Amino acid sequence: MENTVKLETEYMTLGQFLQIAEIIQSGGMAKWFLSEYEVYVNGEQDQRRGRKLRDGDIVEIADFGRFIIKG
Fold first, then answer.
1. Which CATH number fits domain 2-70: 3.10.290.10, 3.90.950.10, 3.60.15.10, 3.40.720.10?
2. N or C: which end of the chain has fewer CB within 10 A?
């Protein structure tokens, strides 16, 4: 499954992305979610909730799907 997440600014953080994509309910859940699930950004595993996502980045999360960041 592939989804598109709209980027309203120059970038969004991985924590913000998880909320915008409706994967988590609150920003406080981001740290827990990233420690429990394997999250890949452009093919590289990343657990930093502050990781900057920009136009064209691809986020993949097992059981949740693949997301493309569009500016």
1. 3.10.290.10
2. N
- What local confidence, expressed as pLDDT, does residue 2 receive? 85
Pairwise CA distance, residues 44 & 8, whole Å: 24
Ranges in the chain, pLDDT < 70: 1
State pTM to two decimals: 0.93
CA nearest to 56, candidates 13, 11, 1 = 11
